[in-house]
Amino acid sequence: MLRSTETKATQRKAFPNHRNYRIDDLTACVPREAPLTELPASFKDWDSLAARLSCKNDEEVRAFRAAVDAMPPLDHTTLTEIREIQRGFMLIAHIAQTYVFGMPGSQPLQELPEQVAQPYVALAERLGCRPVMAVAPYAFYNWRVDETRPWWSESRNITFPALQICHTLTPTEQLFGSISVLSESIAGPLYPHITRALETVDKDGDDAQFIVRECLEGVLQSIRDIMEATQEIWKGCDPATFFRQVRTFLSGWSDPQLFPNGLLFRGVTTFTESPDPIDPYALSTATVTNQPNDPVVHKALAGDPGIRLKFAGASAAQNPSVAACDLFLGVHHRGQVGDSLSSNGKHHNLLAEVRNHMEGPHRRYLNDLARHGGLRPWLTRKLEESPDQPGVREMGVAYNACVEDLTAFRSKHLAIATQFVVLEAKKALREKAAMTGTPEGEGSEEAKGSGGSSVVPFLKQARSETSETKVVTSPR
Question: What contacts 104, CB < 8 A, 6 or more positions away?
Fold first, then answer.
């Protein structure tokens, strides 16, 4: 059935071709060529510090911070090749996490020194990212090939990746980061199917429904591959280790209890980030007529020795391929009251907002896909106007299969989040209550993911919104 916004007169922009956005046919938004394992010799201090990320006690934390404080400023502009820039950003992001957070459970520092803050912000601007830990620096720029671990899904055989560096040196963190790489890189074939489908819709020929159905079958396989890759988490990730150790180093600086004024980037006067993400639900809502298009410029306040930034940390929602499925299929995520993490105070739903943590070209692809409108308006019009035309109903069935499996993926994601975050948060609360003699629920807050969202309500709503996207394929 047509939504009220899916009229024949809907204006459609040119469809985005993924190949113009640094998205690979085989590895999606993960670089096909393995990341560098070291930078030029002039950056040996960064590489050396990266080998000391895992601090076992307060003395090692103090020594690490002292080494960072003593480090001379390095000229990031000498990093010119894309893999150099990506590795530089990855290293400085990891160094910043250990410098700020030290060890799990300790009180974080409230500022970064100039020799970290300046290259962090500058490299983030060059990549179109935010200067905060996210999936890209944590995993996409931080993997190596592990030839000892072949892995295969229903449709593809690939080599299981391994992280180059990590904070806790635990098998749990190693596997968690590897799955982040695997679940994105396995989705490479998704993008040619999306591009071909949108090109077919643009031409709208007599055989369009047959080609689109074939593309939808390819999209379905990619959704299943992503789902299969994420299930690897049950084979070696320990929930307690993840919650109590790994999660700290995925965090950002948006928690008002830990960072009431954000994190100070000493010596940095401005940070310019790309325009806010396009929210397709807002585009289709009559009360919202414009989307922000101007860059957001963060400036230091008068008297401050640098800018203060409040950004959430890494989240599974930052994997671009699941977002691409949403936008291609036309899933409308409406957002929850209070879930916005927008840096400029404007409301966006979280699944749109997290795009600001992605590398610039990948975010632009998703924004352009959102502007385009995806497949659903054309498909629903076909089902309304030509339901008996050969191939049309079968196309609708293939579309619904994609929606059903994307809904199933969100159910599995909810199960993971419940086990690794919600239940572990309850355990931690019980332990705290036993130690302090406080009632178990006193002072507690709802479990939140490292990206800053309330886990269970957010994921349940996302699942419901996905399921609602199914179309009517049978005669009325």
Answer: 244, 245, 247, 248
The dihedrals phi and psi of 165, each to the nearest 5 degrees, come to -130, 155
Across-strand partners of 145?
A: 161
Tell whether residue 348 is among the known ligand binding residues.
no
pLDDT in tens, 51-70: 999 999 999 999 999 999 99
Question: How far is CA 301 from its chain centroid?
Answer: 30
What's the number of CA atoms in the CB half-sphere (13 Å) around residue 175? 17
Amino acid, single-letter form, for residue 346: K
Q: What's the number of CA atoms in the CB half-sphere (13 Å) around residue 432?
A: 13
* CB burial of residue 376 (10 Å; 0-12, 13-18, 19+): buried
pTM of the model: 0.89
- C-alpha triplet 112, 115, 116: angle, nearest 5°: 50
Which tokens belong to 257? 């209890």
Q: Is the dihedral of CA 213, 188, 317, 312 positive or negative?
A: negative
Q: Give which of 354, 332, 350 is closest to 340, Cα–Cα.
A: 350
pLDDT band, residue 458 (cuts 50/70/90): confident
Is the CB of residue 54 less than 8 Å from the CB of residue 167? yes
Distances (CA, A) of 110 to 46, 120, 125, 246, 307: 21, 16, 22, 20, 12
Higher pLDDT, 263 or 454: 263
Rounded distance between C-alpha atoms, residue 201 and residue 148, angstroms: 43
CB 271 within 8 A of CB 121: yes
Task: Give residue for tokens 């159905």.
Answer: 213
Running DSSP on this structure, what letter comes out for residue 454? B
Domains of the chain, residue spans? 18-467
Q: Specify the CATH number of the domain 18-467.
A: 1.20.58.480
| Residue 238: other Cβ atoms inside 10 A | 17
- Beta bridge partners, 28, equal 24
* 93-to-96, 124, 288, 384, 422 alpha-carbon distances in Å: 5, 10, 36, 50, 27
Q: Could you give the CA distance from residue 55 to residue 61 in angstroms, rounded to a whole number?
A: 6
DSSP label at 249? G
CB 170 within 8 A of CB 246: yes
Which H, E and C letters describe 224-240, residue by residue? HHHHHHHHHHHHCCCHH
Question: pLDDT (tens digit, 9 = 90+) per residue, 220-256?
Answer: 999 999 999 999 999 999 999 999 999 999 999 999 9
How far apart are alpha carbons 417 and 233 in whole angstroms?
11
How big is the CA angle at 472 (ends 469 and 476), to the nearest 5 degrees? 155
Structure tokens that stand for 245 in this block: 């150790």
